[in-house]
Amino acid sequence: MTGERSERYGAYVDGEFRAEDGDGSREDGPLRVTDPATEKTIATVATAGDAGVDAALEAARRAQPDWAGTDPAERRRVLYRFAEAIENRADELADLVTRENGRPIGQSRALVDGAADYIAYYAGATTKIEGETIPVPGDRQAFTRREPLGVSAQLVPWNAPLALCCRGIAPALAAGNTVVVKPAPEAPLGLLGLAEIATEAGVPDGAFNVVPGGEATGAALVEDSRVDEVTFTGSVSTGRAVGRTAADNLVPSTLELGGNSPALVFADADLEDAVGGALQALTLVSGQACFATTRVFVHEDRYAVFREALREAVDALTIGPGLEDPDLGPLVSADARERVRECVDGALENGATALVGGDVLDREGYFYEPTVIEDVSDGAPIVREEVFGPVLTLHEFADEREAIRRANDSEYGLYATVWTNDLGRGHRVANALEAGSVMVNQYAGSYPQTPFGGYKRSGLGREKGMQALEHYTQLKTVNVDYGSPRDGSDSEE
Questions:
Q1: Edge-to-edge strand order for the sheet containing 133-134?
Q2: Do both 66 and 18 map to the same domain?
Q3: Is 488 inside a domain boundary?
Q4: CB distance 178 to 63 below 8 Å
Q5: Residue 483 belongs to a domain
Q6: Where is the Aldehyde dehydrogenase domain (predicted)?
Q7: Closest by alpha carbon to 437, among 418, 421, 456, 452?
Q8: What is the CATH number of the domain that holds 120?
Q9: Residues 402 and 418 in one domain
Q10: Which residues are known catalytic residues?
């Protein structure tokens, strides 16, 4: 978003900003974007509403046939320019995201790099979306083609908006679809800036549109019959509603939902690395990540040592505004902080103890202390539910079978980490865990080429990798009967 723009923004449709609010049929008034570190409004953004969604979908549908008909090699060149433009504007985009969601600026810069990586990865895939030739009897031929679905509606959360947006739009655009993105109301600025950069890089007008707003704008988008595919990342409750609407409209959907992921630390693990992994789960966007390993299970032989090392590491964390690049920033909103406070207070009132932390920080901004909870049963709400804050629960286990059983005792199944120097155990446990992604001796190590998604209530479908292209395309089978040469034909004599 160029520096001379005012602090009032609107939807980005057909290659330009719309300053007006929606028509008010379902949603009134602008969004006020707040810096979580200062609690001050930093921008107002006009809600798209029904009228903005209508304009965006019309633009996307107009642009889609030409974009789909563009030579795949040219789509590749456009997307590579887009990726390069993101890299060139990395500092600007990282600043926007940190100011709107509180994430430490170093984390935001890393996610901008990740966003560019997604675009570049799928740019290289445009010429590799292939069908198959299928043997059939007689003078016939059968083959398949992968064709774009049309218009993709994508609902993006606030915690990692640039990376998660590019994770979805990159394969969609690479396959010849156009997209309409609805950002979370807490964090629309980064995605509006991203859309403007896309246009400047040569992405055609109407191919990438952004419609800010709340629930009403999201409903207007997902319910519209002009939408051919839906991608959603967010809560289980909203995901159910989105998936139900997509099913009613008979369009495919990908749903990445909540998580309550386990970390398993075995007796032979490198404890320094395992403690570092727990800290990453605690501090990455202040624990507001769907794949945070919030349930930490430690073998009884190393529990005391791990516990003390983790306590010291948490005590040493720096806390402050995201632009100062601390270890831990604020939560995204006052409501988010209150939900974390209620969850921790409930556990403490029912017999749990806080090894460290356990309270709201007395300072400006939506800060909560980094917290580790002990003496809590596997059935407690703080263990069963997604806390979405800088909170871990610490548990002790006796053997491998017990660790696996307790790790799998969850309605979620998005992510897990295993810490061990026993190669056989690493494979056994990874195979036994009910999770869409398992990391062995690392916390984060996911790349554009590795599929990502959840088991159980953590969602449906897979993002990333070449597998995502299957979701953004539909398969056509072509059967040809070319017959035998007939008398008088032009066959060779």
A1: 133-134, 140-148, 473-481
A2: yes
A3: no
A4: yes
A5: no
A6: 29-478
A7: 452
A8: 3.40.605.10
A9: yes
A10: 256
- Cα gap 261→278, rounded to integer Å: 11
Residue 338's alpha-carbon distances to 34, 363, 413, 477, in angstroms, are 16, 15, 26, 54
Give the span between the Cα atoms of 88 and 145, in whole angstroms: 36
Instruction: Centre a 10 Å sphere on the Cβ of residue 44 and count the other Cβ atoms it contains.
Output: 16
Claim to verify: residue 220 and residue 287 sit in the same structural domain: no
SS3 label, residue 96: helix
CATH code, domain carrying 336: 3.40.309.10
Helix 90-101 × helix 161-174 angle, to 10°: 130
Query: Got the DSSP string for 222-263?
Result: HH-TT--EEEEES-HHHHHHHHHHHHHTT--EEEE-----EE
User: How confident is the model at residue 108, as a pLDDT?
Assistant: 97
Query: Hey, which bits of 444-483 come out as E strands?
Result: 455-456, 459-460, 473-481
pLDDT in tens, 306-320: 999 999 999 999 999
Residues 192/52, Cβ–Cβ less than 8 Å? no
Residue 297's DSSP bridge partners are 264, 395
> And the tokens for 451?
């599929």
Question: 288-340 pLDDT, tens per residue?
Answer: 999 999 999 999 999 999 999 999 999 999 999 999 999 999 999 999 999 99
Q: How buried is 130 (Cβ within 10 angstroms: 0-12 exposed, 13-18 middle, 19+ buried)? A: exposed
Give the pLDDT confidence of 408-428 residue by residue, as tens digits. Answer: 999 999 999 999 999 999 999
Number of H helices, E strands in the chain: 15, 23
- Cα(269)–Cα(299) distance, integer angstroms: 10
Please name every residue paired with 90 in a beta bridge, in sequence order, or none if there are none.
Answer: none
Element spanning 347, H or E: helix 334-349
307 neighbors 355 (Cβ within 8 angstroms): yes
Q: Which residue's structure tokens are 């990159």? A: 170
Whether residue 83 has pLDDT greater than 60: yes
484 domain residue, yes or no:
no
Q: Judge residue 47's burial from the number of C-beta atoms within 10 Å of its C-beta, 0-12 exposed, 13-18 middle, 19 or more buried.
A: buried
**CB 83 within 8 Å of CB 16:** no
Residue numbers of the domain that contains 312:
262-440
Please state the separation of Cα 35 from the chain's center in Å: 21
Give the span between the Cα atoms of 259 and 157, in whole angstroms. Answer: 14
> How would you class 482 by CB atoms within 10 Å of its CB: exposed for 0-12, middle for 13-18, buried for 19 or more?
exposed
Any idea which of 49-58, 82-91, 124-133, 484-493 has the lowest mean pLDDT?
Answer: 484-493
CA–CA separation, 178 and 171 (whole Å) = 10
pLDDT digits (tens, 9 = 90+) for 7-53: 668 999 999 998 765 555 566 678 999 999 999 999 999 999 999 99
